[in-house]
Design brief:
The chain is of the alpha+beta class. The protein is built from 5 helices and 6 strands, in the order E-E-H-H-E-E-E-H-E-H-H.
């Protein structure tokens, strides 16, 4: 499924798609990894980066995929991605959609790409009968926070993300 969006001030007869949204395909793994690297640089987290196309591919397109992705293209070039997966709410007794990452290259921000991606994911959650659509945002990313609030999202001030990874995860798994 693909969506095309046009520039708001373009006459309908001359309107060329500004960007196209579509489900990620196998051919998109390399560009998605490149965008993940850009995201890590933006978030100052390159020291945590371990992703490669070979490591990501089976999780999106393997025998038992655990995540899905969407991309935005401009002129045939992938300029944004959203990676998401199903989670579950015990309180609602319903699955939910969890957005792990959404990244739009700086040159394409402010053009409706992020809004279109969130809207598409919200519709996907509704169409699948999910009870929630959730994601995290870094507390210093004021632009993203304002954007998400304009989209209707609520920031949950009483919740903190907990994480085990690397040696800490291995140690817990060996207890």
């Amino acid at each position: 499924m693909s969506t095309q969006a046009t520039a708001p001030d373009a006459p309908a007869s001359q309107a060329k798609p500004a960007f196209q949204l579509r489900s990620a395909e196998l051919r998109d793994v390399v560009p998605i990894v490149g965008l993940i690297r850009e995201l890590a640089e933006f978030e100052n987290l390159t020291h945590l980066l371990q992703v490669t196309p070979e490591k990501l591919r089976p999780h999106l397109f393997g025998e038992k995929p655990v995540a899905e992705a969407m991309v935005a293209e401009v002129g045939g070039e992938v300029v944004a991605f959203a990676l998401y997966f199903t989670n579950f709410s015990t309180f609602l007794a319903l699955p939910g959609l969890y957005l792990e990452d959404l990244y739009v290259q700086p040159a394409h921000r402010g053009k409706g790409v992020g809004e279109a991606m969130l809207t598409r994911l919200g519709k996907l959650a509704v169409d699948r009968g999910y009870g929630r659509f959730e994601w995290c945002v870094l507390d210093w990313n004021e632009n993203a926070i304002r954007f998400y609030e304009r989209m209707g999202a609520s920031l949950l001030p009483d919740w903190r993300l907990c994480r085990l990874t690397g040696d800490a995860l291995a140690a817990l798994g060996e207890r």
